[in-house]
Description:
By secondary structure, this protein is mainly beta. The chain is built from one helix and five strands; from the N terminus they run βββββα. A hairpin with a 2-residue loop joins β1 and β2. The protein has one helix at 80-90, and strands at 31-33, 36-38, 41-50, 53-60, 69-72. The model has no long low-confidence stretch (mean pLDDT 83).
Amino acid sequence: MIYNVFNENLLTKWREPKFQKQKNTLLPLLEIINEEKEYEIEAIRKHRKQGNGTQYLVHWKRYSNKNNKWILDSRLEHAKELLKDYWHIALG
């Protein structure tokens, strides 16, 4: 059995954000494909080698840059056109 232990004295009381940029609003999912949640990718920003594969920095449609995420190429099967466009621009 695994227990997570933390010091409750380190917790702070939650406060309502003062500024609009601090608010983290959740957007609805766009699609459910094969019973999996799918978000729409707006752009691929960068790439990097990771083990035997490649990861891409994905920018999600209607989300800010702070939500960008590195995704392995094998998980981008629905973004083939965006990958093609990314490499066309990256290779000049």
